[in-house]
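Hi R.,

As promised, here are both runs. First protein below:
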Amino acid sequence: MPQTKPANTSHLVRRGTKAGRDMAALLSDFGHDLPTIPAPIQRAKESRVFKYAPRRGAARPGRGWSPAKAPAQAWRMTSDQAPVFWPFVSAPALPPTGAQMGVDQLSGGSFYCDPFGWVLRDDVPATNSNIFQIAKPGTGKSATTKAFCLRMMEFGYRTLILGDPKDEYERLCRALGVEPFVIGPGMSTRINPLAMGPLGHGWEHLTAEEQRRRTGIIFNRWLVLIRGLVGSMKIDEQRRVPFGPDESDVVRNALAILTGYAAGNTVLRETTMPRLWDLLRNPTEDLIRACEYGNPRQFLDETRLLRNALGELVTGTLAGLFDDFTNITVDWRAPIQSFSLSRLNGLGDEAVGIALLCMNSWGRGLREIAEPGDLRIVVRDEVWKQMRLGLAAVESFDADLRLSRGMAGEGGDIQFANLHKPSDLLSVGAADSQAAAIAKDLLELADIKILGGQKARVARELDSMLGLGPIAQDWVSGWAMQDKGRGLWCVGDSAYKVQTVLHPLEKQLYYTNEAIEAAG
């Protein structure tokens, strides 16, 4: 029987293999072939430019091979210790309320200043609204001050310039339709630092208890002023005229007699510094008895230094300026009021300081009764000239900073003080004196500090007083010195790197280099 060719059984499963056929074989039996996937094109492999070294290095001579891995070490440090690896961390952003001052360089957003708004918020570390600005001359300090005052007017704030020694606010006042008051030799403006202010109004309608309360406030304000004025007079280079409990008692009793309070008058009479000096030179029996002196001679002997110091002021620095009744009417509804003291610069820093002290007392008297919601920015330029008058002058400024929340729940002031360098506070007296200690602590009464451009040495002084840290210190001595209007805004414990931005019209209003430009 002839042999036949065996059928193709390659698709059949051989014994010992898995049973069944795949889908491709099954379709092939019925004449259907599945499409095949084209084979990928083999491309030439590119040479590797960089080769990863083994973790322990190449095991060849000279290749740094190590038989074991280097142990991992953990280090913990602050951003001040490793600023390159851990850059300065910015503080949380402040709420967008108040005056828009410029750009926060760390976040790139707008920076707003709202002192009273910050005090009312629990998430902002500020408990008072006072502002200290410390910056080198020519770095945009006055422009930042004016920009803040002008922009806060949109929120109902008014500005009071209690002494403008350089007439820097004159152009801004006139742009707002207000003419500054000029105080100086030969000028007609008179300011009585012993004015009673609003507390003396309607005296005849007050109860006896209210009269006693107001009298205590008025007399205490006058005593602070006279203590500062008398204490500014020097006996020699090392000693100043003392003003202790005996001098305070004499002045208080003299003021009570001059105002009619000692006689029980229903209406207090306003008095002046020359009248006080005249009464001390010619004491009445009532004054001698009230001060418990035996006779006029004893009174005159015991009060000689006090009397001579007041006489020196009345016939000297205060003559023609603060020696008569106030003859101006201040519109407290105006957006700004300013008192020019530039005519006093020829008399020396001490004369300017005494004028600032008198203006301080007069302005405080007018703010003792403020309407609810009457918020005001009180600008104090060249404040160091006032504080160098002695301990009493420092205490007077210290008292003003503590009134930022207003009086009796009404009103409220933002004290905006401008300084050139921190040593302005430390040079008010000897290093270990009480005046220097109080002046140094004044920084604690301002939770908002604007630190403008400074030289490296001054920046180190700021660091020692405020604990800025090396990064913030470098900003003050480097970045802030590179352009005007730059400063480190310290709000409580938080710091913000801010560039003040001015409108072109503001740049014209705030320009203060006319004298230098004319000389050039």
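And here is the second one, sequence first, then its structure tokens:
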Amino acid sequence: MGEQPRGRTARPGDRSLRAVRLVAAALCGTYAVSLAALGAGVTGPPAVLAGGGKLLFIAGLVGLLVTRAVVSRTDRAAWACFAVAVACYLSGALLAEFHYADLPVVPRPSWSDAGWMAFYPWAYAGLFLLLRSRVRRVTPGMALDGVVTGLTVASLAAASALGAVLRMADGGVAAVLTTMAYPVADLLLLVLIAGALVVIGRDAGGVWWWMAGGLTLFVVTDTLYAYLTVRGTYTASGPLDLGWGLAFVCFGLAACQQQGATAAGARVQGGPGALVVPGICSLAALGMLFAGYLDEGDPVAGLLALGAVLAALTRTALTFRQVRALAVSRSQARTDDLTGLPNRRRVYEALGAADERLARGGSVAVLVVDLDRFKEINDSLGHAAGDALLRQVGPRLSGQLRDGDLLGRLGGDEFVVLADGLDADTAMTLAARLRAQLQRPFRLGGMALTVDASIGVAVGPAQSGSAEELLQMADLAMYAAKTGRVGTSVYDERRDGSGRHRIEAVEQLRRGIAGGELELHYQPKLDLTSGTVGAVEALVRWRHPTRGLLLPDTFVDLAESAGLMAPLTSTVVAQALRQRRAWADAGLELGVAVNVSPSNLVDEHFPEEVAGLLDAAGVPADALVLEVTESLLMADRERAVRVLGRLRALGVGVAIDDYGTGYSSLAYLASLPVTELKLDRGFVGDMTASPRAAAIVESTLQLAHALDLVLVAEGVEDEATLAALARLGCDVVQGFHLSRPLPPGQLAEWVRDRAPVAAR
């Protein structure tokens, strides 16, 4: 076999379709020969063989469709329906060829009619299944588009050949019903095809288009056959046989196509573009009605056209309703409910537009307005009074602004103004006017209330070329004005720069957590009972894009204050569990310990998150230990105990980190669902030089064993400390004397190359 083209891999269905395509080619050749023979007017046995070639082709097509149903993964039921439909048609053709062909008069209806009519319901089912697999959700607008298009096409068809067939049908009741059944069935099939083509759109793939084209060709040929039969001008083995043959060829080509992508959802319907299809169909239907008015038109076509117009009108009304609802929704999404001013989303959209003006050299001033003592008003007078006050702020400030300026509410009692064409001096003048307006008494019921405001100002491009950064600067300037009680203040880099850089650092850390910049190093924990390393502690590092590898003390406090510890901890737990799984797959079984943040410890959903991470990594719960500090436990003890209890119920271990530095209490220790105590490094490091420290270590060890807990001594820096802990009967130790924290690959090599120490 030749080399695959670069960037392309053979799909599993390609090999299965090769056999299907080879069979299809052979069948098409057979059918072409039979049609040529019949067209040449052969008689006798050759004519029988030629007719048999046509039947052989249809029989082979049934086998082809069955094969496609077997190899297809998504449209198996649809292909099976098409196979049954063609098989029913084949049964009618076999009866007509070998039973009814020699009769002087063919009864109507006949068993051939039964086989041919059975083709339709199975074709309907196959089309419906193909449609459903490509459009998972059909909106009311899409459904109406399909109805409008289908009825319009049906009305046009009824006005041409199908209507004539219905009008010219004669004979007995059974014969008339049989004659009418074909055009009616074809009409329904045409409605389904036309409607589905509108609903499914242009990206359905070759399977759909070949199948829909074949069925359409089948309907057209069938209609012409019925029309010629009623008029008595149909001749067997004529040009119409070529139409049916091409229809069946299309079915075969559809079976040879690779499965296209399945649409994830419905097309987006909205706006004037959604009215194109129903508009065109309405015009066509109105034309049909007008033609019927001028002349004695076909009643069936008229009824269908009327139905198309009514459906199109309904579709139009629905579209306008959707457009109006969309406009209202967009307005509400950008408007503050309380004040009616632009909300935070609209403000940030305006900041994006301001960036373009700054890039062109224009100036933009950003003013952040914060009401003073607003919390006192809420606490003393109630939230209703506070809301009433906020509703009056907008009209006060708007009177001082130009038409092009934007006033919005960021949230709480904080407002923002965006004004073009102002420098720092004129922006400060505007800030003074705004503050003066807010200092006027507010009327709340029968009471006059006086408030004040602090306003921060930043102006670009002098201070920044980014409007969003100007908002941050104005916010820092506002805090400076509030702290200094000066009312208004413009951003000062020397005074406010540290706060600005902290904001930048928070955003960098947020992006770093989401962007995979966190790395874990692992410090081994030596089990003194067995003399082996059975677990590690995961310690996070930040691979900063410009500052390199940062240790936790440079960013953990920042994460705590910025509310990022929860996502940081979750990321570390997930990464540690994946690494533990990788080690286990490589034959290295290690437990892993991870520090837990305060936000995780009081999060009632954290145990469920841990359970999901364990399942995703395929790691047993007892291989994970979560370390918490005593101060965290005492911050919200009741909730922390609930969360830890649920973690222990999963099988996860819990360790108290830095034990002895916080609120060490036998009462809380006895009630907590913990499995380990980690003695603080301060006691461990001094134990060889201080009898008091050694006594604390020994008593803590005895306490841990009495409570059936594992004692982990961290901060082992020398051999003497390790030996002393071993003599006391300590369970687990870790520290630089054993190893510094190592990247995953180096840690695995360190563990494998290290000889076990003598167990105590």
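A quick note on the second one: The chain has a mean pLDDT of 76. Let me know what you think.

Best,
J.
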